[in-house]
Specification:
Layout lengths: L2 H10 L8 E3 L7 E2 L4 E3 L5 E10 L12 H13 L15 E9 L8 E8 L10 E8 L5 E8 L5 E4 L4 E4 L4 E10 L12 E6 L4 H15 L4 E5 L2 E5 L6 H8 L3 E2 L6 E5 L4 E4 L4 E2 L2 E5 L2 E7 L2 E3 L11 E3 L2 E7 L4 E5 L5 H10 L4 H13 L3 E2 L1 E4 L1
Parallel strand pairs: 1-17, 16-26
Antiparallel strand pairs: 2-15, 3-12, 4-5, 4-7, 5-6, 6-11, 7-8, 8-11, 9-10, 12-14, 13-14, 16-17, 18-25, 19-24, 20-23, 21-22
Helix pairs in contact: 1-5
Main location: other
Family: Belongs to the FlgI family.
Protein name: Flagellar P-ring protein
């Protein structure tokens, strides 16, 4: 390769990815403390229940394949004073479902929460159905909420004799505000002697910045960094934990970002962090092409042959060639993200090829970032 071409290629190289690449800004923005940490002990609790969705337009469970649906429906009717023992009823407008929800922290009796309804039988769609009163239990098997209401389904299914079309997931839906909280979880936040803040992305630098920002905001050294993921707040007499959190949760600071490259191999999406750097390295991208051509030949026996057979004789031709000169690019020391992205785009590197290049650069030790493959 000529010196001129090397200079052009080296100048072009610093980038990557085509339209599939999402590049972050080199400068990190200030983030509120509430978006960086979780308060220890303040969390939601998962709830689950078994129920029935009724009123379906012939898209419910087939009771022969889902006998538990028939049993649950019979139990509900029995509780309502309708005796169906020994009766032969097989409605197709009922579906057995699992109802899931999250009980948010500090939820009080009478509050409403959203629920998700998912079919567990062979129902075709829950569209237009109504969830019958369903108790929701937590891990301790206690009832904390009761759900009921019309199911909202975003997907649909249309079918004919020879073809069907399914858009989205018609066998799952939601009920916004569909459950009432019936029991509260005992948690007295105001009586906590200390509060621990758990960083969602543990990092020593970020934890130290959180400690400094809180102490500067309150004017007293109440915050102490315990490790990369925990900052402890000591509460003196007379300090209310809830009021303290309301004062500090809107403090803004700049979190430290890890140098990270995230690759989704299924879609070809690549996301590069702002602090990704590359050491001096040379990259060669080959344009090797292989063409295989099949030209079968029919071989027939001689005329009037008694034992001859007509056979097909395969003829395969394999051609190996390069579509153009290979690109060799030299990356200089400590190339930044913007340089890397613009250079590889100039070379016309596709996202799939870029994934292979990044993997190889990481193996060679030239890519200084955490490589996350999905």
């Amino acid at each position: 390769m000529s010196t001129t071409m090397m200079k052009r290629t080296a100048a072009a190289f610093a980038l990557a990815i085509g339209s599939c690449l999402a590049a972050l800004s080199p400068a990190s923005a200030d983030v509120r403390l509430k978006d960086l940490v979780d308060v220890e002990g303040v969390r939601g609790n998962d709830l689950v229940g078994y129920g029935l969705v009724i009123g379906l337009n012939g898209t419910g469970d087939t009771l022969r394949n889902s006998p538990y649906t028939e049993e649950a429906l019979a139990n509900i009717l029995e509780r309502l004073g309708v005796n169906v023992q020994g009766e032969d009823f097989r409605p197709n407008n009922v579906a057995a479902v699992l109802v899931t929800a999250e009980l948010p922290p500090f939820s009080r009796r009478g509050s409403r929460i959203d629920v998700t309804v998912s079919s567990i039988g062979d129902a075709k769609s829950l569209s237009g159905g109504t969830l019958v009163m369903t108790p929701l239990n937590a891990a301790d098997n206690q009832i904390y909420a009761v759900a009921q209401g019309s199911v909202l389904v975003s997907g649909f299914k249309a079918e004919g004799d020879a073809q069907s079309v399914v858009e989205g997931v018609p066998t799952a839906g939601t009920i916004p505000g569909g459950a009432f909280v019936e029991k509260e979880i005992d948690f007295t936040f105001a009586q906590m002697p200390r509060v621990r803040l758990a960083l969602r992305d543990p990092d020593f630098t970020t934890a130290e910045r959180v400690e400094t920002a809180i102490n500067q905001s309150t004017g007293t050294p109440i915050a102490r960094m315990m490790d990369a993921g925990t900052v402890e707040l000591s509460l003196a007499d007379g300090i209310d934990p809830a009021r303290l959190m309301s004062r500090i949760e809107n403090i803004t600071l700049q979190p430290a970002q890890k140098a990270r490259v995230v690759i989704d191999q299924r879609s070809g999406t690549i996301v590069l962090g702002a602090d990704v750097t590359v050491s001096t390295v040379a990259v060669s991208q080959g344009n090797l092409s292989i063409r295989i051509t099949e030209t079968p030949v029919v071989s027939q026996p001689n005329p009037f042959s008694r034992n001859g057979e007509t056979i097909v004789v395969p003829r395969t031709t394999v051609d190996v060639f390069e579509t153009g000169p290979g690109n060799i690019a030299t990356v200089q020391q400590n190339v930044t993200l913007s340089d890397l992205v613009s250079g590889l785009n100039a070379l016309g590197v596709s996202p799939r090829e870029m994934i292979d290049i990044l993997k190889t650069m990481k193996t060679a030790g030239a890519l200084h970032a955490e490589l996350v493959l999905q």
